[in-house]
Amino acid sequence: MFDPKVIRKDFPILSRKVKGKRLIYFDNAATSQKPIQVIEAVANYYKYYNSNVHRAVHTLSQEASQKYEDAHEVVARFIGADSYREIVFVKNATEGTNLVAYSLGLHEFSEGDEVIVTLMDHHSNIVPWHIISKVKGIKIYTVGIDEEGKIDLDDLASKLSSRTKIVCVPHVSNVLGTINDVKTIAKMAHEVGAYILVDGAQSVPHMPVNVKSLDVDFLVFSGHKMLGPMGIGVLYGKEEVLEDMEPFLGGGDMISSVSARLEGGFSVKYNDLPWKFEAGTPNVAGAVGLMEAIKYLDNLGMDNVHAYERDLVKYTLELMEELEGVEIYGPMNPNSRSGVVAFNIVGLGGHETASLLDDYGIMVRSGHHCAQPLHEYYNISNSARASYYIYNLKEEIDIFIEALRDILVISSEL
Ligand SMILES: Cc1ncc(COP(=O)(O)O)c(C=O)c1O
Fold first, then answer.
1. Nearest CA to ligand 1 atom 12
2. What pLDDT is stored for residue 60 in this prediction?
3. How far does the centroid of ligand 1 lie from the alpha carbon of residue 250, in Å?
4. Cβ–Cβ < 8 Å for 67, 287
5. For residue 92, which atom of ligand 1 is closest to its CA?
6. pLDDT in tens, 241-250
7. CATH number of this structure's domain 38-298
8. Cα(251)–Cα(255) distance, integer angstroms
9. Mean pLDDT in residue range 55-81
């Protein structure tokens, strides 16, 4: 049963007040709040079985290692991967993208090779390639967006070539909320022999995502945006692709043996997947928390999560459209977007709008949302953004719209 009023009871933070008002948290695209089940799972790890993993035979280490490995299995099932070997735990989506850029780009791409990103990518899917391109002489091409605010597939087709090595796209735009046709993009990339890397930071928390049916080579996402703790994220990679890739970081646990050679240097054998990509002591508490978060979302059903957020966005767009002086970015058709609405009040900057909303206890993000190229496209330097999750209510949206009405009056008097 999907009942947001029942769901809210699991989130202690939602009962706090801000500036004397009941907290309205509309900044879920930046990070979600955490249910008590996740908070307790993390606390219980530290209270009862805190230990390093994969390093000792004692009971605590065995228990912690088991949970850490279970978490890989749970993530694999959640996104439809074939096996836990395809699930690499990283810090966040950003580290996942960097891992691919360094392990694949630095080692396997050469001068004149091409990488494709899009105008709506988050900086985390652009800047790692920019860094690698300077070292390797790789060319980066940027694909534009169509009238519906989605990746322009004609433009993509015109930029793909036999030199394209990887196509990097966001599944869902963190500004427009638009859902891109990743399955078609994957097919187009594979036709020219390129990999596809999908940034799932705004899709995996909000809708069913299946890596096999989309046929993507890489998918990255962050635990903290999907009810989990900060500091844990996921890189999914097809097993055969990860198998052939060089490690990103070197250190403990990512090797199966290291021995010094008499003639100098070392002989190093890397560990099996996914551990080859998980150097050093990992974030066990984060993994345990993420596993609990996935259990929570699974119980709700990702189809229900998606449908509910779409309903909230539909409601918002209907009410916002009636407000004169509010500019909304992205398509007005709620079926084309997930639970994100970026907007500006004419004459006010995004930060001013967000700080006025804060006086009503309403938390929205403002700025360029790490998507400056997209803001440039719209000829704006920043925007305010309301983004929803499973515990938000239409009543909260009513309060938000009333606050915007007040702010419109204030801005007209400036
Ligand atoms: C679309 C998208 N990609 C990547 C990221 C980066 O996430 P993180 O900061 O958790 O690495 C974000 C975060 O806002 C995002 O919205």
1. 201
2. 94
3. 25
4. yes
5. 11
6. 999 999 999 9
7. 3.40.640.10
8. 7
9. 95
pLDDT digits (tens, 9 = 90+) for 336-352: 889 999 999 998 989 99
Amino acid at position 24, single letter: I
| Active-site annotation holder among 127, 370, 393, 399 | 370
Enumerate residues lining ligand 1, CB below 6 A.
Answer: 29-30, 92-94, 122, 124, 170, 174, 199, 201-202, 222, 370
What interhelical angle do 59-78 and 284-300 show, nearest 10? Answer: 40
Give CATH 3.90.1150.10 domain extents, the chain.
Answer: 4-26+301-412
Per the structure block, which two tokens stand in for 244? 């052939």
Euclidean distance between CA atoms 130 and 133, whole angstroms: 5
CA 291–ligand 1 middle distance (angstroms): 20
* Residue 85: half-sphere exposure toward Cβ, Cα within 13 Å: 11
Taking the model in full, what pTM does it have?
A: 0.97
User: What stretches of 138-199 show up as alpha helix (H) in DSSP?
Assistant: 153-159, 182-191
CATH 3.40.640.10 segments of the chain: 38-298
Three-state secondary-structure class, residue 246 = coil
168 is catalytic: no
Q: Which H or E run includes 118?
A: strand 114-118
CA dist 252 and 56 (Å) reads: 13
pLDDT tens-digit series, residues 99-125: 999 999 999 999 999 999 999 999 999
> Among the listed ranges 120-129, 225-234, 374-383, which one has the minimum average pLDDT value?
374-383
4-26+301-412: what fold? Aspartate Aminotransferase, domain 1 (3.90.1150)
In terms of Cβ atoms closer than 10 Å to its own Cβ (0-12, 13-18, 19+), residue 322 is exposed
State the pLDDT at residue 110. 96
- 385 phi and psi angles, rounded to 5 deg: -140, 125
